[in-house]
Amino acid sequence: MAYLRGLLVALAAAPVVFGQNAAYKTCLRSAVAGGGSVAFPDALLYQEVDVNRYNLNIPVTPAAVTFPTSTDQVAAIVKCAADNGYPVQAKSGGHSYGNYGLGGTDGAIVVDMKNFQQFSMNYTTWHATIGPGTLLEDITTRLYNAGKRAMAHGTSPQIGAGGHFTIGGLGPLSRQFGMALDHTLEVEVVLANGTVVRASESDNSDVFWAIRGAGSGFGIVTEFIVRTEPAPGTAVQYEFSISVGDAKSQAALYKQWQAYVSNPDLTWKLASTLWVLQDTMIISGTYFGTKAEYDALDMASQFPGANGTAIVFEDFLGLVAEWGEEIALKLSGGIPSNFYAKSTAWTPQDLMSDASIDQFFEYVETANKGTLLWLLVFDFEGGFINEIPADATSYPHRDVLIWLQTYSINLLGSVTPTMIKFLDQLNVLANTSAPYEAYPGYVDPLLQNGPQAYWGANLPRLERIKADIDPNNVFSNPQSPQPAS
Ligand SMILES: Cc1cc2nc3c(=O)[nH]c(=O)nc-3n(C[C@H](O)[C@H](O)[C@H](O)COP(=O)(O)OP(=O)(O)OC[C@H]3O[C@@H](n4cnc5c(N)ncnc54)[C@H](O)[C@@H]3O)c2cc1C
Ligand SMILES: *[C@@H]1O[C@H](CO)[C@@H](O)[C@H](O)[C@H]1NC(C)=O
Ligand SMILES: *[C@@H]1O[C@H](CO)[C@@H](O)[C@H](O)[C@H]1NC(C)=O
Ligand SMILES: *[C@@H]1O[C@H](CO)[C@@H](O)[C@H](O)[C@H]1NC(C)=O
Ligand SMILES: *[C@@H]1O[C@H](CO)[C@@H](O)[C@H](O)[C@H]1NC(C)=O
């Protein structure tokens, strides 16, 4: 870590100057007066403390990082930025793979939403009000403590609601409840002209549609109202693993898993992820039900030759803590690092053939990967996510059965071309059908035509809405939708 800190200081020392006049600074200082604050690039420890990049491989120096405490302050900040010609991005948990919460490229005005921690439960409707700065770990406990409620979202505790609920939000409960964005019933949003609106199916429905899947290009959400569900009771956390790393046994286990999860009658109560790491391959997940129900699925017979374990959790908070530890162990703990990641997906119609699977794992075994810290994550989705029409929200990938995330980390320095080539080639061998689909929550800054891959058939409508409510592209990062011309 000392090395990383040295690197940070070296980067912070590079002088970056924005704007020849100080008008935006004066404007921002008055925008946050009365509780909020703002930091500029000349601040001491600006990079380390105020900016605090998640992906160390992507340098980014914002023109300012603001810390508002009210919706009115957010609106005033957006107006300052728009009037002075600066792009704006909100930062909630700061976990964008491309540092898009920091603008993704130099010179943005960042609106750090960490002070937006409001929470309340309506005990009649079981609708919860959640501030966008709330991290997933706090959402879990606050919902549980308010009448044992829950919602679907990812497993990494440090992700923020602001970036997660507006872009997707896949997690172990998604097959039952949908994505995090499918829980959203209403939002309060600051638009590009500084207007504050509430958006839902009935009010500002275009804004509401765009915010559920492509939020960062359309506004800053200052409040979410979400549908909640009774928190699961008993659950079984299972794991099957093989420690040998040869291509044949890995391909065989993958084929068994793919066949198992592509059964359309498989219960929505089953979540499953297949992990491939250096020297090991693991199938793990949760069955939301009793041990007897889990045993009746007889998963062990599906994966002969793998070592299986199953742990019963009676307590939902304990189960969620276990998920967090699992991801921390496998993904370097959500600690900032130099990394690169890509995603691709299969629908039930274009799953890999046996020949493709053999080729894929042959390559995994023999390729020069450029690092030992690489990871392939195959996530089984479907279920309730697929019941929602592809044009109901701006998130388009409703028919996906399996998402693949490939991930490569370098703890010693920058991401190398060898690391990138390994992930690129995996995507080629995955042999998914064109057009290429990518998960908007796993942004890949090197992707050509990112918006098409993230939003597919929903992109034209997003571009029209963009032209309508943000024609000057105030809310932008390197891959956000452009206004239709
Ligand atoms: C370790 C790790 C594990 C992950 N696991 C999962 C997972 O299990 N499932 C899954 O679906 N995803 C997962 N992700 C991806 C994650 O959901 C996205 O990276 C998400 O966008 C992060 O949100 P954030 O608020 O933490 O990030 P930020 O960097 O703060 O924001 C990300 C983007 O959202 C925008 N944004 C942030 N707040 C707001 C707001 N209030 N209004 C409008 N736009 C906003 C930002 O401008 C930026 O463009 C994981 C990421 C990491 C790093
Ligand atoms: C809960 O929601 C109902 C129905 O919308 C509403 O009438 C009631 O006032 C809400 N309760 C609180 C405490 O906000
Ligand atoms: C299963 O576990 C045993 C004991 O730890 C080990 O010897 C064996 O190699 C494992 N099998 C596989 C397929 O990983
Ligand atoms: C790739 O997919 C196409 C269409 O799904 C299929 O015809 C082809 O055989 C696949 N290639 C391999 C190597 O499996
Ligand atoms: C701000 O933009 C919204 C959406 O385009 C529009 O409805 C509203 O009238 C605008 N407000 C002002 C003050 O221009």
UniProtKB/TrEMBL annotation:
Molecular function (GO) terms for this protein are: FAD binding; oxidoreductase activity
The yes or no answer to whether the keyword DNA damage is present is: no
PROSITE patterns reported for this sequence: FAD_PCMH
Write the signal peptide boundaries: 1-19
Q: The FAD-binding PCMH-type domain covers which part of the protein?
A: 58-231
One Pfam family assigned to this protein is: BBE
Q: Which UniProt keywords apply?
A: FAD, Flavoprotein, Oxidoreductase, Signal
Its family remark reads:
Belongs to the oxygen-dependent FAD-linked oxidoreductase family.
What is this protein's name? FAD linked oxidase N-terminal
Source species taxonomy:
Eukaryota, Fungi, Dikarya, Ascomycota, Pezizomycotina
